[in-house]
Amino acid sequence: MASPPEAGRDTLVVRARRFAHDGPWRRLLRDGPRLTAWVLGVTAAFHLFYVLPPTHELAEKILAEDSIVEDITAVALFAAAFLGLFLALRARKLGRPIFVWGFYALVALVVFLIGMEEISWGQWIFFWRSPEVFKEINSQGETNLHNIGPLQGHSEWFRFAFVAAALGGVFCNRLPALREIATPRSLTGPLLVIFAYVSVDMLDDVFPRVPWIITTFSSMSEWTEMLIGLAALAYVLLKREDVTRLTIVQP
Q1: CA pair distance 190, 40, nearest whole angstrom
Q2: pLDDT by residue (tens digit) across 169-184?
Q3: How far, in Å, CA of 45 to CA of 36, rounded?
Q4: Would residue 17 count as lying in a domain?
Q5: For every residue of the chain, which 3-state class applies, written as one string?
Q6: Structurally, how many domains does the chain consist of?
Q7: Does residue 175 fall inside a structural domain?
Q8: Least CB-packed of 127, 167, 193, 225 within 10 Å?
Q9: 88 lies in which domain range?
Q10: How far apart are CA 169 and CA 184, in angstroms?
């Protein structure tokens, strides 16, 4: 006798919830060496995909503006902002110090603003025209800040600052007072991979002439931004687990 459709749907829902709460991706986020191997391996593989002539054109399309890589970046950033806000509210409800839940709220706000810049504040979703003032000062005629004046072409400095701050947060694990907001140690390796790519990308700004292979790191900037968005989301997810454990421990 066939099972009713409702039972099948319930089973799918249960499986989805089980994957969300106990899926293997959670163990991966806590396993620093394996997570680093995945990030480094996939990044190096795509970089090779980009530099090889037979696949170069396809790779450029993948990395282009409004492509799947940029879409993943925006989704990761907005998910981090949404979950980060609820993380801050939960931490506040549990009576955590203001600097803890305030920091989570600040992270949510920052990644939300970065996400809005990534989609030009919704311009390429709702297809509205840029105000005249942005058409005049924005090099791409878009409604965003990172293509205005001296900021145009130098977004790698923002990526550098973001990753450097995240790596600095790893050292906060040594300070009991800051451990709640510290960058999880399992993210150290992936952040170092991102840091390496951003650092090589910046060589274009420091030296007038660099080898061709160095210039390909600049072309990988959209990929690097995607990794930053995913790292922000991973931070929020790992901190949500920590707060959940704190909820269970408290009477």
Answers
A1: 7
A2: 999 999 999 999 999 9
A3: 14
A4: no
A5: CCCCHHHHHHHHHHHHHHHHHHCHHHHHHHCHHHHHHHHHHHHHHHHHHHHCHHHHHHHHHHHCCCCHHHHHHHHHHHHHHHHHHHHHHHHHHCCCCHHHHHHHHHHHHHHHHHHHHHCHHHHHHHCCCCCHHHHHHECCCCCCCCCEHHHCCCCHHHHHHHHHHHHHHHHHHHCHHHCCCCCCHHHHHHHHHHHHHHHHHCHHHHCCCCCHHHHHHHHCHHHHHHHHHHHHHHHHHHHHHHHHHHHHHCC
A6: 1
A7: yes
A8: 127
A9: 32-249
A10: 8
Pseudo-torsion of CA 72, 73, 74, 75, nearest 10°? 50
Q: Judge whether residue 73 has pLDDT over 70.
A: yes
- Residue 231 is assigned to a structural domain of this protein: yes
| Residue 58 reports pLDDT greater than 80 | yes
Q: How far is CA 126 from the centre of its chain?
A: 23
- Token duo for residue 211: 């080898």
